[in-house]
Amino acid sequence: MPQTLARKDPESFKTLALHVEASAHQLSYQGIGLPLSFSQMQARRRPLQIADSQHFAVELANLGVSVRLTLQLEGKDYWVVVRQQREDRGDTVLKLISGYVPAHELNLPLLTALQEVAEECLVESESGWLGGRFAQTWLPTPYADCLDYEDVLHFGLQAQIGSTHPVFRDSLPLLERPLAYVHLPTASLQLVYNLRLELPSLARDLSLFHADEQLEGCDLITRLAREQPDLHLIALRNGRATGELFTLQQGQLQASKTDNLWLSEGFAERDGWLVRDERISWADWLKRQTA
Fold it and tell me: What is Dmax (Cα atoms) for the chain?
């Protein structure tokens, strides 16, 4: 039986639409207009067309963040991804940990990215749930009222090499140089931070779980379903996917099926600053990895 971890009013979320300008070498954005509620933002996420993938100025619905999270286990690297059923798009995909950036964090979307890791990536050891730390900043423990967090052990997040093309909020460059793309089907700007997840060596019988957030009626409800971990590991070799997919349960890798599997637009082909597709099949993505 899934455990309810949190309940939120989605209309308490406020963000801003964006004005985005791009050249071949950099992209900049700024918030415009009045604050938008969750439903108002969703109403703006409609397909648009941009003729030139390298040079444009456009108004977009929102800013989102994703985290390409790399984990090393027994000397091998894995990407941490979420299996998500997208009711608004009628499919089930593997996606990066991601979320919408609220208005007050448009200046520093890295904070939203760290919050999303704390909320979506749950690490359990034999002695309790692990909190996290990025450099000198402790991540929040959003479910402390429901889960027993460890007092001593914690996981670490470290920034990895970012994009070669800088992204600016107005005239200020963003830290950690996230990769950026405009997703045309949803008229949104997405920033992808490249982070490494470091697990404590003293932790035993580690398991990874995803806290799934669903809109039910007027509430956003977050639940933990132990029988469906939904946090998966894409195996890598020399930075490329091997075609293997796992979950981590009590310190053991469990193979996951990849039949008829899809990945979200974050894995789809990019044209300059643009992503045109909603998703890409696992098989097609692997072919691109080895091309």
Answer: 54
How many Cβ atoms sit within 10 Å of the Cβ of residue 93?
A: 22
CA 279-218-186 angle, to 5 degrees, is: 25
Mean pLDDT by groups of 10 residues along the chain of 291 residues: 88 96 98 96 97 98 98 96 81 92 97 96 96 94 94 95 94 94 98 97 94 83 90 95 96 93 95 96 91 67
Q: How many CB atoms are located within 10 Å of the residue 52 CB?
A: 11
Task: Output the pTM of the full model.
Answer: 0.95
How far apart CA 97 and CA 112 sit, in angstroms, is 11
Q: Tell me which amino acid residue 76 is.
A: K
Q: What is the pLDDT of residue 291?
A: 67
Helix/strand/coil for 115: helix
Alpha-carbon gap, residue 266 to 247, rounded angstroms: 20
Backbone angles phi, psi at 13, to 5 degrees: -75, 135
Report CA torsion sign: 67, 276, 174, 24: positive
272 SS3 class: coil
DSSP per residue, 123-157: EEETTEEEEEEETTEEPP-TTTTTS-EEEEEEEEE
Which has the closest alpha carbon to 195: 209, 210, 176, 211? 176
Q: Are 92 and 104 in contact (CB under 8 A)?
A: no
Count of all residues that appear for the chain in the document: 291
